């Protein structure tokens, strides 16, 4: 696969930087270090390209967009005089098309990128740390003045009695299977569970989500509650507040025994999909040999400069257990590489990190939630604007959703923005820039926004702090 890469041999002179992991964070670190003049060893193990292109963002979003066409046809009756139909005729063909895209992007964005950097050597093998802080790859010592760990994450497997006897799916295998299940139990109400549950439901599976805390428990409660209702309107069953007890599998079905508010229940469906989060890939690195500290979930502990507890060793991306988004992995890895080369002057800042869930309606957020702001001792005010007050939603005859803004009560400075809307993801960056600029809700409410757009809802939500926007004309204010 990598025959076109001109790599150094391990026996050559010492590297300036060794990067462990060849996914988004690893490539970001390696390319940044090379641009800074470093001789880099990029150490990969398994499929090059990491989670995003292979089993995460790319395949899931491709499949989500595919089944969106099915939903759009069913929702066409929102408009008088319109009738449309669509159906899955060959699920296996759709899965293979998705995989072809994954293969093409892996080649274009990873394999074919490396030959452009003649100071980057690609080394294949599992890396382990030694007591002196060095690493061994495939039995050979790799000498490097600085090391960046970027080994990513994998699906978390919960400890539930009987699970070991179940032929379960995870976010990887579910998107690889060429057989569409007739019914599917999705365990987990986080963003992975939400996205995949809706994907399979729209494709035709009968879907039940089982969760301890409800959908998107870290989001604003108004958003989690509304999304739950929209899912149920689509025929997705959401069972929350569960205590899991035991799984059993028989021919053709999986049963979960659980309790809900003290009542014993059983849920039986054809297949089980585990969407219970992700855990860092650290267990094979022998981190304890080098005195590199990890947290309770195995994430490497780093300071704002991306430094670990071992001098000269940095970590970035999912392996740190935080902000598990591909763009944050690349951002953190770039900082780690620059700090490794130039003296630790750059600090990680996620205060205006946008986060998106590709459900429908989409969930997008940036900054503090109301609860997080109060936990910091900030006295807040909030506005909640439902989409029936947004002209774009009315024109589209789809008013599912809301926009919630959180602001400092005294200064009116916007602290957080949270959007639930069919086109919400494309609006969140405007809110991120407003927060980054320290804008007040008065500032945002007096800005000029294009009419009949979802992003105009931010202006209306800002005005909602002190006005009843329902009393305004279309473009007033």
Distance between the termini: 59 Å
Structural class: alpha/beta
CATH architecture of the largest domain: 3-Layer(bba) Sandwich
The major pleated sheet works out as: 5 strands, parallel
Low-confidence stretches: 1-8
Total strand segments: 22
Total domains, how many? 3
Q: In CATH, what is the homologous superfamily of the largest domain? A: FAD/NAD(P)-binding domain
Q: What is Rg?
A: 24 Å
Biggest sheet, spatial arrangement of strands: 3-2-1-7-17
- Mean pLDDT equals 95
What percent strand?
Answer: 15-25%
Which percent bin holds the helix content? 25-40%
- According to CATH, what is the topology of the largest domain? FAD/NAD(P)-binding domain
For the record, the CATH class of the largest domain is Alpha Beta
The helix count comes to: 13
In short:
The protein is α/β, with parallel strands linked by helices and 477 residues long.
């Amino acid at each position: 696969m990598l025959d076109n890469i001109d790599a150094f041999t391990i026996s050559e002179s010492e590297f300036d930087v060794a990067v462990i992991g060849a996914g988004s964070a690893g490539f970001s670190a390696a390319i940044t270090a090379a641009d800074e003049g470093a001789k880099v060893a990029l150490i990969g193990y398994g499929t090059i390209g990491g989670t995003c292109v292979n089993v995460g963002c790319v395949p899931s979003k491709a499949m989500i967009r595919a089944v969106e066409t099915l939903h759009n046809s069913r929702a066409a009756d929102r408009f008088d005089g319109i009738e449309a139909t669509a159906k899955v005729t060959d699920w296996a063909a759709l899965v293979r098309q998705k995989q072809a895209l994954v293969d093409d992007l892996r080649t274009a964005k990873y394999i074919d990128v490396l030959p452009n950097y003649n100071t980057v050597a690609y080394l294949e093998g599992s890396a382990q740390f030694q007591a002196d802080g060095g690493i061994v790859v495939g039995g050979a010592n790799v000498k490097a003045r600085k090391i960046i760990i970027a080994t990513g994450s994998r699906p978390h497997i919960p400890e539930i009695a009987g699970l070991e006897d179940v032929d379960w799916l995870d976010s990887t295998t579910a998107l690889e299977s060429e057989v569409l299940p007739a019914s599917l139990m999705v365990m987990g109400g986080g963003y992975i569970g939400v996205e995949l549950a809706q994907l399979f439901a729209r494709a035709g599976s009968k879907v039940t989500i089982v969760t301890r805390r409800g959908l998107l428990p870290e989001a604003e409660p108004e958003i989690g509650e509304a999304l739950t209702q929209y899912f149920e309107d689509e025929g997705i069953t959401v069972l929350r507040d569960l205590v899991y007890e035991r799984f059993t599998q028989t021919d053709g079905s999986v049963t979960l025994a659980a309790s809900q508010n003290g009542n014993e229940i059983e849920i039986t469906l054809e297949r089980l999909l585990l969407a219970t989060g992700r855990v860092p890939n650290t267990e094979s690195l022998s981190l304890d040999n080098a005195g590199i500290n990890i947290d309770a979930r195995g994430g490497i502990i780093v300071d704002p400069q991306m430094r670990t507890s071992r001098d000269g060793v940095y970590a970035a991306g999912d392996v740190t257990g935080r902000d598990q988004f591909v763009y944050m992995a690349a951002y953190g890895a770039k900082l780690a590489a620059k700090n490794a080369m130039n003296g630790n002057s750059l600090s990680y800042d996620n205060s205006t990190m946008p986060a998106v869930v590709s459900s429908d309606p989409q969930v997008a957020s940036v900054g503090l939630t109301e609860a997080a702001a109060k936990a910091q001792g900030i006295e807040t005010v909030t506005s909640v604007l439902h989409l029936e007050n947004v002209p774009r939603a009315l024109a589209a005859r789809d008013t599912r959703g809301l926009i919630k803004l959180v602001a400092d009560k005294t200064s009116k400075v916007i602290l957080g923005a949270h959007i639930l809307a069919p086109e919400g993801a494309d609006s969140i960056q405007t809110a991120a820039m407003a927060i980054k600029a320290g804008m007040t809700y008065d500032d945002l409410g007096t800005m000029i926004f294009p009419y009949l757009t979802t992003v105009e809802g931010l202006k209306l939500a800002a005005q909602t702090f002190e006005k009843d926007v329902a009393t305004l004309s279309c473009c007033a204010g």
